[in-house]
């Protein structure tokens, strides 16, 4: 009975009870988190979410469970977005460009006053780590659901955070602890540290404003691009330089701290599968950490949080080498994109915890209460072409969209629906697909099934790449690092290479939709209930269950044709289309805006020389000459918006 006399003790018992119920309901483990809501624990009547897309929807879901009214903000192009429809109220804060809407502090502050919101949840990105925004809210008596401005300032500045980490006895990467003034000073510092080095934005995050440099020329170029991206994304172009740890793992620790000096570490997340320093696939826990290393990393993360009097959910990121030496990378003072996998293995609702902490309540758990229950994997589903640099942005309208929520142990965090537009203005993420299992093997099998059952039409997406990653022998064995993608696909991702058996199965299935045939002299038995109106075709091929998606448009993974004998004979005599000479022309590989054009007609350019810079989703991409030649014509200028395949420059 003692546990029921203590409010904190009662909460712990209730938490444990609810978690068990969620895990074992109907005998199936489900990929969920537990919002233990005590109606006597008053928080806020109304919360404004200063964000968009899937994270805004995620916050609204927990607010609804807690009985809290919500306010959505949106740009004019997002007026029909899912997060706007989910919220109790919505306020337009400006036109599509983020600087005029989701980063428009004045407009968002007006929305707070207009709606009478008592608190603001910033989500991630945008204003989530902006100390000025937190200060302005505090001045109006509105609660910022996140840490205080001191912690945001200290951890948001990578130079200051590294000094604080050293003082808190957290392992740090060797490097220059000051602000780099210009490109030549960057070269000097890089030479003193020793190549390779990482050039990165002091106020940055999310892979933006980061470049790896292996020589002086790359350092000069990296300084220019990193400072431009940092200014565009964060309004702060300061850079720092540190030693690049070659071939590391990227492993992070989730922390949770209240305003009473209590702090916990909620285990780790393995985030090593990346492209352009941005995460693609994450899992919790990591296959690499042993209990001692996990504890050491967790304790250092908590030590850092306490050093800055941190209060909220936050993430301390580490680089881990092959000998399990770990080094502090940065602390994200916000809810992390990949937080769902931590919720799956701990049963905690991190948004709920953030709201409680912001109101001033103590943590309900002790460190010994934090479990590792099962395994969770997250795949970031993007509107990107994975065949171009592992993912260049794709835009368009979702003509057909079907999430695999019919499967058990699957969670999809999304903020879009059929008919939604994917535009050049915002991050190309479609959703976070999460699967859960008692073991890693179960979670991986479920992810494979979920990806096969995910229907996305109207935009190019990265599911083919995600599908290949999670079944690759190196990934399955846990032999990964941040170099996984370039090492496994040194010439870029080319798609799945069919085995002879898979080829026969695919051809037979295609033919079965048309007429029964033999393939390569072998009979292939295809059976199933054909419903050509459905996006998914569950079939059986030679006794094996398969899920097929049939797409008549350009987004198919394998393009197949069924021809009559006559048509097949005549097709041999059709002239082949001559491929375009890509060495003499430069086309935009993605939709975006032209940041700079470095040449004019008549200029002589060398192979590899920069011709122009295209920005898409806040990432800048240098377009270079494929050969040494004279510039014949230029078809773009700074400020132009270009589409995928648009002609930029012609060479003689």
From TrEMBL:
> Where's the ATP-grasp domain?
162-359
Look up the record and name the pathway of this protein. Metabolic intermediate metabolism; propanoyl-CoA degradation; succinyl-CoA from propanoyl-CoA: step 1/3
- Example GO molecular function term? metal ion binding
UniProt protein name: Propionyl-CoA carboxylase alpha chain, mitochondrial
> Where does this protein come from, organism-wise?
Cyprinus carpio
Domain Lipoyl-binding stretches: 573-652
* Subunit structure as annotated in this protein's UniProt entry: The holoenzyme is a dodecamer composed of 6 PCCA/alpha subunits and 6 PCCB/beta subunits. Interacts (via the biotin carboxylation domain) with SIRT4. Interacts with SIRT3 and SIRT5.
- Cellular component GO terms, alphabetically? mitochondrial matrix
The Biotin carboxylation domain extends over: 43-490
Q: Where in the cell is it found?
A: Mitochondrion matrix
Q: What is its EC number?
A: 6.4.1.3
Reaction catalyzed: propanoyl-CoA + hydrogencarbonate + ATP = (S)-methylmalonyl-CoA + ADP + phosphate + H(+); butanoyl-CoA + hydrogencarbonate + ATP = (2S)-ethylmalonyl-CoA + ADP + phosphate + H(+)
Q: Please give the cofactor(s) recorded in the UniProt entry for this protein.
A: biotin
Q: What InterPro entries does its record include?
A: ATP-grasp, ATP_grasp_subdomain_1, BC-like_N, Biotin_BS, Biotin_carboxylase_complex, Biotin_carboxylation_dom, Biotin_COase_C, Biotin_lipoyl
Provide a GO biological process annotation. Answer: lipid catabolic process
Report if keyword Magnesium is assigned. yes
**What's in the keyword line of the UniProt record?**
Acetylation, ATP-binding, Biotin, Ligase, Lipid degradation, Lipid metabolism, Magnesium, Manganese, Metal-binding, Mitochondrion, Nucleotide-binding, Phosphoprotein, Transit peptide
